[in-house]
Write a structure and sequence with these properties.
There is one protein chain. With 394 residues, this protein is an alpha+beta fold. The protein folds into three domains: 86 residues, Acyl-CoA dehydrogenase/oxidase, N-terminal domain (Butyryl-Coa Dehydrogenase, subunit A, domain 1), CATH 1.10.540; 107 residues, Butyryl-CoA Dehydrogenase, subunit A, domain 2; 141 residues, Butyryl-CoA Dehydrogenase, subunit A, domain 3 (Up-down Bundle), CATH 1.20.140. 46% of the residues lie in helices and 14% in strands. The chain is built from eleven helices and ten strands. The strands form three sheets. A four-stranded mixed sheet has the order 1-4-5-8. Strand 9 and strand 10 form a beta hairpin. Helix 4 crosses helix 6 and helix 7 packs parallel to helix 9. It is globular, with a radius of gyration of 22 Å. The two termini are 37 Å apart. 39% of the residues are buried.
Length: 394
């Protein structure tokens, strides 16, 4: 396998790096995602999205007619790698670009495309995802939020949970049951919901890092026009599967892990304990070597997904392997960092004694949730077992 980039691709990587050097916020450390309750952080996300929009880089891989640049799969991979490595503040547009927009491109009417895609690439709208419910997480098809047709509208009642960014979003991709008599996978529809619609209530869910990133949403007789239905009624499950396939095809985890290893290696070289550098201790060197190998494996798994897409194939269980490995890898890496740092590693960012601004303590807590986000390890292993290994459904 040839991993070398073409001269044009190398030039594009350098262009992205140079642009980031000029346009990342001043004093941006990349770890401000841990303080999502801070309104200033979200202003940074929004402002950075505006800079990307001016460059047509909000969704550069989208077709030109939808506001992108039509980048190749490899160029998109390069772009995503550089954004992840430099820890760019992409929180404003990530849901619209990674989930909502691609699904609208595949299933939306021309009117829906005209209304929403340009607004996403111009950084005018922020999206959230209304899929999970209190009793429908891993078993998403058991969701109970109802949408009943009433003339030219659908009336929606129910609840969603763990909705990232709902308190700041303009629109929501929403799954609701439209045929309660059908089998659970076949009675679900997919809606594009204006978050300002009367009857929508958003309540914060504060996580163990004291962040307000997640929310629960309640729908009380929310009237949604029928032109907000995406695709055919009762076919929403299959569109949701498309959305989740987009979600599981990212290289960000592997690249983020590489950045963490580099920072941890630098810390070990600079920090002395009992009169010698941490990097001279055998146990520390072994942990760092293991972490570096795992990061490289994660990168290769992500490259496998990208290479399949480049050949016109649709990754399925391959994406699940990459997702499962990379989220677990980042959790193990955060744990290794805390152990290498000792008790100081457990200090929160507010402490002046916290190594690396408390980044590994934050990452450890954050990654605990990210292992579940986007599909639990059990779900990923089932996909790998059935679709990759051909094992029977139990």
């Amino acid at each position: 396998m040839d991993f070398r980039l073409s001269p044009e691709e190398e030039a594009f990587r350098q262009e992205v790096r140079d642009w980031l050097k000029e346009n990342l916020p001043k004093d941006w450390s990349g770890d401000r995602f841990t303080r999502d309750r801070d309104p200033e952080t979200w202003n940074i996300y929004r402002e950075f999205a505006g800079k990307l929009a001016a460059k047509k880089w909000v969704a550069p891989a989208w077709p030109v007619e939808y506001g992108g640049l039509g980048l190749s799969v490899i160029q998109q991979l390069i772009f995503n790698e550089e954004m992840a490595y430099h820890q760019a503040p992409l929180g404003y547009s990530i849901m619209g670009v990674g989930w909502a927009g691609p699904t609208i491109i595949v299933y939306g009417t021309e009117e829906q495309k005209q209304k929403h895609l340009g607004a996403i690439t111009n950084a005018e709208t922020m999206w959230c995802q209304g899929f999970s419910e209190p009793n429908a997480g891993s078993d998403l098809a058991s969701l109970q939020t109802r949408a009943v047709r009433d003339g030219d509208d659908y009336v929606i009642n129910g609840q969603k949970i763990w909705t990232s960014g709902a308190h700041l979003s303009d629109w929501c991709i929403l799954l609701a049951r439209t045929d309660p008599e059908a089998t659970k996978h076949k009675g679900i529809s997919y809606f594009l919901l204006d978050m300002k619609t009367p009857g929508v209530t958003v309540r914060p869910l504060i996580d163990m890092m004291d962040n307000h990133a997640f929310n629960e949403m309640f729908f009380d007789n929310v009237r949604v026009p029928k032109d907000c239905l995406l695709g055919d009624e009762n076919r929403g499950w299959y569109m949701a599967a498309t959305t989740l396939d987009f979600e599981r095809s990212s290289i960000g985890g592997a690249v983020g892990g590489r950045r963490m290893v580099e920072e941890l290696v630098a810390y070990a070289r600079e920090t002395k304990r009992n009169g010698k550098r941490l990097s001279e201790e055998v146990t520390v060197r072994v942990r760092l070597a293991d972490a570096a190998l795992e990061v490289e494996i994660g990168r290769m798994l992500s490259y496998r997904v990208a290479s399949m897409q480049q050949r016109g194939l649709v990754p399925n269980y391959e994406s699940s392997i990459a997702k499962l490995f990379n989220t677990d890898m980042q959790f193990r890496l955060a744990k290794a960092g805390l152990e290498i740092m000792g008790l100081y590693g457990q200090l929160e960012p507010q402490s002046k004694y916290a190594p690396l601004r408390g980044k590994f303590e934050r990452q450890y807590l954050w990654q605990t949730g990210m292992i579940v986000g986007g599909g639990t390890p059990e779900i990923q292993r089932n996909i790998i077992a059935m679709r990759g290994l051909g094992l029977p459904r139990q």
